[in-house]
Every structure is written in C-alpha cells, then in structure tokens.
Amino acid sequence: MNLLEVLRRPLITEKTARLQDTGKYVFEVSDGATKPQIKAAVELAFKVKVTAVNIIRVKGKMRRMGKGLFLTPDWKKALVTLKPGDKIELFEGV
C-alpha cells in the first residue's frame, strides 16, 4: 500500500478541535493500515514528527432509508500525537 493512500481524510469535530490544543489529530485511515504506516504517512504528508499513534475500529450502524434498513460499513480512525511544538496547518482555524 502506498503511504499516501493510508490517510483518507481528517476528522474535524468539536472533540477533535479540543484535542488539537494538546497536539493530537484524528484521521480516517484505510482498513489495512498499521501504526507504522500511519506514522510514516503523517510525517511524509505534513512534515511533522509523530510520537504516538492510537487506532480505533468503528463498527457500522443500522440506518433506515425509506422502508429498508442497511448497515453502514465499518471503518478505522487513528489518533496521532505530535511532538510538542509541531502543528498541522490543515486544522488551524477550525
């Protein structure tokens, strides 16, 4: 897997905005991504130093569309902790 395919999108919510003050950023990542791949991808994409990576598997939910029910797919997110003083400019001002 190519390192730039590991990161899918940043997750920007109220909770992740509060985490930015402590140097933690949250990304949706591909299902097969490992912690070393996520660390290398963030360091390559944003030119920062990553100190820790935590992975959370999010289960899909049952949703209704009209009369039918369907299950949303499972996905994976990563909580990335940066070296003190480093920032990802993508998230600034959110």
Shape: globular
What is the CATH first-level class name? Alpha Beta
How many discrete domains? Answer: 1
CATH architecture annotation name: 2-Layer Sandwich
Helix and strand topology:
Blueprint: E1 7-10, H1 14-19, E2 24-29, H2 35-46, E3 50-58, E4 62-65, E5 68-71, E6 75-82
Antiparallel strand pairs: 1-2, 2-6, 3-6, 4-5
Describe the protein in words.
The chain is α+β, with helices and mostly antiparallel strands and 94 residues long. The protein has one domain (3-84): Alpha-Beta Plaits, CATH 3.30.70.330. Helix content is 19%, strand content 37%. It is built from two helices and six strands. Strands 1-2-6-3 form a four-stranded antiparallel beta sheet. A two-stranded antiparallel ribbon has the order 4-5. The longest helix has 12 residues, at 35-46.
Summarize the model shown.
With 94 residues, the protein is of the alpha+beta class. It has helices spanning 14-19, 35-46, and strands at 7-10, 24-29, 50-58, 62-65, 68-71, 75-82. It has a single domain, classed as Alpha-Beta Plaits, CATH 3.30.70.
